[in-house]
Amino acid sequence: MRVRILACAIWLHCGLVLGAVAQPQLQVPDPVLKGLPFAVTVEGLAPDSGYVLRVEGRTYALTPENGVLRADSVRVARSGRVPIVLERGGQVVARAEARALPGWTSVLPPLLAILIALLFRRVVPALFLGIWLGAWLAADVSLSGLWQGLLDSFDVYVRNALADPDHAAIVLFSLMIGGMVGIISKNGGMQGVVNRIIRWAGDPRRGQLAATVLGLLIFFDDYANTLVVGNTMRPVTDRLRISREKLAYIVDSTAAPVACLAFVTTWIGYEVGLVGTAVAQIPGYDESAYSIFLNSIPYSFYPWLALLFVFAVAWTQRDFGPMYRAELRARTTGQVLGPDARIDEAAAEGREFRPPDDKPHRARNALIPILVLFVSVLGGLYATGEGETLRDIIGSADSYRALMWGSLLGVLSAAALSIGQRILTLDETMEAWYAGLRSMFFAMIILLLAWALSSITEELRTAQYLSSVLSERLAPGLVPALVFVLAAATAFATGTSWGTMGILLPLVVPLAWHVLAASGLHTETEYHHIIYSTVSAVLAGAVWGDHCSPISDTTILSSMASGCDHIEHVRTQLPYALFVGIVAVLLGTLPTGFGWPWWLSMGLSAAVLLLGLRLLGKKVPGAAEPVAE
């Protein structure tokens, strides 16, 4: 009995000593933003209502949560090192410091990235400088912090972006899709699809419609679309006296819009990855990134209307502005190029993906891998999802796994068809696959840096700061339209829709959510269309700005593949892109932000476009006889 009493006494004494020695730990975010609420947690204390936090003379109650004490909505009113004191009964128990930055500094990393991209028209350096600035702010605003920020930019933020399993899945899927495109281009499958369509083209209307349909069929990659349609249709449109400017317009205005809208493309992994990064910054929002992307498609007014307008122009044979003059020249004189046109025919051929001339060009060698990819992705979504309705199943599915399964099976089927029919050897198949991968590398670098910049803005709470500044001044319904204009301006100045998406999506989607929250609308699902519309506004605005920009990669490729003078392509396409874009934002994005049904805005926009073409456009007179081959 005495032994038990002695043991208990020793145990109690040790517990008291350890309790006296143990110090509570205050966990304070680093850095915090002046005037913006943040949370402080205290570890090492039993739940006790007697503890309080004191910050700049204000007292904050601590509440137990998951085994720790927590104080929410803590604020500091000045920048610099701010003491945080834990008290009980007027006695100081523990101390910590908050490193407070002015709120506007959190906007500097993405703002610097945008400005550098606008000034120097280079996205990769712009993104990296934005990451470096953000890492410097996160580390310490000092000379040593500047050096540490440079190291952390690559060692911490870029590495963490690549190490994320979902990010890795997106990179692998995108590379595999690029590889599949390389194989089905090299094995002649895509050329076979083209050959079947161009047999139908016998007059200018059918020639333009054939080029447009081809642009829709090659939906899985905008670069492949541009190179294949431009190079293949050029001899046909030349024979039919269709100007090179018109061909370049058709190629450019179908490539990016259809790749932006289709849900199995080289774009989808990139877009879903950015949406997922953006949504991860929204607390309590559990809809999958793939589901958000699918729900955003009806609100992508510019891509839909751009495709409609191409069809309308081709069908009605009406044109206006510089395009009318180009078509009049081609139709009446047979000169498909202007007298001062500068082109490089050799650069337009895309030899890397050119199929062998001595092998059959079978359409099934492209259609079967695409079908395998399509069915595999749908099957993967169904297999990994749960729910009673198809919408619930897709919304809860693991889209990353489904996309990876589909891309793998698509590549394997393309390789099997190529080797099995002896169209390509194993080495040639691997070279074509690698060429397709290589075409995606630059986009993957942009995506990786965009993820890293997004993690910086999340750490600096950029979206919350912007929301605190704008929420009282900005109506939620205006957000998508303003985002569309911002995305269009950024893409126009930088010449890259992908870079624009990478910079803006992780920033503006959380901003839209916080603006909704400030209005008390974030819990009502009927207002979630603002999120969908904001996502689509970035994608659509980026494509619109890309179409208008003379430094856009797809615009340049469209000129090259169509054998058109680049400046003439930009000059003739610009009025069409501006007309469609203005209608899209004024009658589509803006009204739906304030509650209009998307189908009503789409129908009204389409009607205005068709009416405008009827009033502004003129049918091209002159000879319709094809030029002799």
UniProtKB/TrEMBL annotation:
Q: Which residues form the signal peptide?
A: 1-22
The Na+/H+ antiporter NhaC-like C-terminal domain is annotated at 259-588
Q: How does it sit in the membrane?
A: Multi-pass membrane protein
Q: Does the keyword GTP-binding apply?
A: no
What's a Pfam family in this record? Na_H_antiporter
Entry's transmembrane regions: 101-120, 127-147, 167-185, 247-270, 290-315, 366-383, 403-420, 432-454, 474-494, 574-590
Q: Which InterPro entries match?
A: Na/H_Antiport_NhaC-like_C
Q: Which keywords describe this protein according to UniProt?
A: Cell membrane, Membrane, Signal, Transmembrane, Transmembrane helix
Where in the cell? Cell membrane
Q: Which GO terms describe its cellular component?
A: plasma membrane
Q: Which domain of life is it from?
A: Bacteria
Identify this protein by name.
Answer: Na+/H+ antiporter NhaC
What organism is recorded for this protein?
A: Rhodothermus marinus (strain ATCC 43812 / DSM 4252 / R-10) (Rhodothermus obamensis)
- Top-down, what is the taxonomic lineage of the species of origin? Bacteria, Pseudomonadati, Rhodothermota, Rhodothermia, Rhodothermales
